[in-house]
Amino acid sequence: MTIETEPAVADPDEEALRAAVAAGPRPPRASAVSASLTFGWRALLKIKHVPEQLFDVTAFPIMFLLLFTYLFGGALAGSTGEYLQTLLPGILAMTVVFITIYTGVTLNDDIDEGVFDRFRTLPVWQPSIVVGALLGDAVRYTIASTIVVVLGLLLGFRPGGGVIGVLSAVALLLVFSFSLSWVWTALGFVMRTPESLMGVSMLILFPLTFVSNVFVDPETMPHWLEAFVDVNPFSQLVTAMRGLMHGTATAGDIGAVLFVSAVLVVVFGPVTMYLFHREN
Amino acid sequence: MTNPIQTESESAVSRHAARDRPLDTDDETGVDDTALAIETRGLVKHFGETKAVDGIDLSVPRGGIYGLLGPNGAGKTTVIRMLATLLRPDAGTARVLGHDVVSDADSVRDRVSLTGQFASVDEDLTGRENLVLLARLLGYTRGQADARATELLEAFGLTEALARQVKTYSGGMRRRLDIAASIVVTPKLLFLDEPTTGLDPRNRSQVWEIIRALVADGTTVLLTTQYLDEADRLADRIAVIDDGRIVAEGTPGELKASVGSGVLTVRVRDAERREEARRVLSRILDAPVALESDPAALSARVIETDRVPHAFVELSRSEIEVTDFALGQPSLDEVFLALTDRSVHDAVSGEVSR
């Protein structure tokens, strides 16, 4: 480390120093909700100071939507406008689900910072560190969703479910993404480097999102593949979102997504926290 | 507990009142009142095949500064991380202010604060945001958090930098912010892991001033350092750690006394005759004689001081002219090197401060 000299900064004032270090009244412990929200606030501050990190949530959705609409639209649905009606909910789900990887990557980066040690020695509900980060990510997911929906509307997407339908589809997507993020947070503690985490996440997400009902009707697939697509939770998410956006969703479609989300949190939440506390 | 919902002026009043109270009146169980600040028995931590900490027994009294002194890789940081609930010991027990670091980690976290070896603040945020963030996490309301952050920034001479991202801070400013972040709520026990490594003398003395102010207020400080003069000046008691074990423990004075009654330094006029002088001194004093970096100087640890005059007689008989000599208490450097049985360069990678 280099020796630093600093000319301009004043010496700490002795009187102020004594007053500042004097033991003050101890505030009551922050509640789990308040601690989570505060960590969420930190995530937002980081977006404010490092806005470059929003690149992925803006560029990805635009690229995906334009690429797939114009590449496949004519061939698969006869016209791009027609294709967009079924494609958009799927592309929306796909872009946001891909962005969830960054949750794990960010956390993986964060762990190596000294500040993480400080957080871990605070008397707060420990999962709030991860929950708060995920809440901050929800903002990123919302930005991506807004971009996809607005761009879609410009390109000719006409949702039959109206504003309420679109908003509830996005809300469902946020719930699913929040839940799926726990998989990456858990992996974030296992993988040594952000790069390896990225690789493994892609390996999971590519089959999950492409072998689904996003691009084509599963009935055109071989039976064994169709069987997989039907049980793929990502297909279920896309089905429910299409239904909500076009006003044809069933309680069963939505229930299935909420069930999968709950399972993800119940399984990977504790796993994440176990790994979080595990010593290296 | 003091009522948390009070105005700033009230809080300032009770903060001052708190100084006159005996320590630890807020603990319902009373266990804090009698327990040692830190008490470990047979503490062990392995990393794979490496025994980073190999059976450490510490008894750190309340109040004052306790120094953990040791070369790089001695296990100082591992000990601190276990005590601060960041690492789980493989064996042995550790109690901090009477609370077990494993089974009662939350109570420990309520009472301690850690300033790690590398800045434990968020580099992307501003100084002010860092302090407000921590104050909110510690349970302050938004308004109280803002007030506390302002108070700390002023006290630590960081007002001008409060709106800048921490990554633009100099080493000294970062360290001060780091310590400020550790005392948003004044802890009963503060862990400082090498708080002055890499700082220039002025910044070092500022950090020392902050540490002394904290101790004057009743906080116990556990400090690790590889700077011997820092331990000598600040610490009331010191444990010297090497290879994961405590090799000596006591006050700086006791440690110095344990090594021998003193050190004799001799400077000969003719550097060419130093080797000859070394043999004479070694024979008379019956102790190893070290050659100093000054080509004409030698030093020897003296166990029996009454042999010293005899040594000078012998030097004079051999017609070796002595220009300068001193017999003094060993410096902590010498104690350290004697205890850890290493050369200066092996021990502290050339970073010994003199």
Automatic annotation (TrEMBL), chain A:
Keyword presence, Cell membrane: yes
Domain (ABC transmembrane type-2) ranges: 52-279
Principal subcellular localisation of the protein: membrane
Spans traversing the lipid bilayer: 54-75, 87-108, 129-157, 163-184, 196-216, 254-276
GO cellular component term, pick one: ATP-binding cassette (ABC) transporter complex
Keywords, comma-separated and alphabetical: Cell membrane, Membrane, Transmembrane, Transmembrane helix
UniProt topology in membrane: Multi-pass membrane protein
Compartments, record wording: Cell membrane
Keyword Membrane: yes
GO molecular function, one term: ABC-type transporter activity
PANTHER family named among the record's database cross-references: DOXORUBICIN RESISTANCE ABC TRANSPORTER PERMEASE PROTEIN DRRB, TRANSPORT PERMEASE YVFS-RELATED
Name of protein: ABC transporter permease
UniProtKB/TrEMBL annotation, chain B:
Biological processes annotated in GO: daunorubicin transport; doxorubicin transport
Segments for region (Disordered): 1-31
Keyword Cell membrane: yes
Signal sequence bounds: none
Keyword match Transcription: no
Gene3D superfamilies per UniProt: P-loop containing nucleotide triphosphate hydrolases (3.40.50.300)
Subcellular location: Cell membrane
Domain ABC transporter: start-end pairs: 38-268
Biased composition (Polar residues): 1-12
Keywords tagged on the record: ATP-binding, Cell membrane, Membrane, Nucleotide-binding, Translocase, Transport
SMART domains: AAA
Name of protein: ATP-binding cassette domain-containing protein
Organism: Natronoglomus mannanivorans
Phylogenetic placement of the source organism: Archaea, Methanobacteriati, Methanobacteriota, Stenosarchaea group, Halobacteria
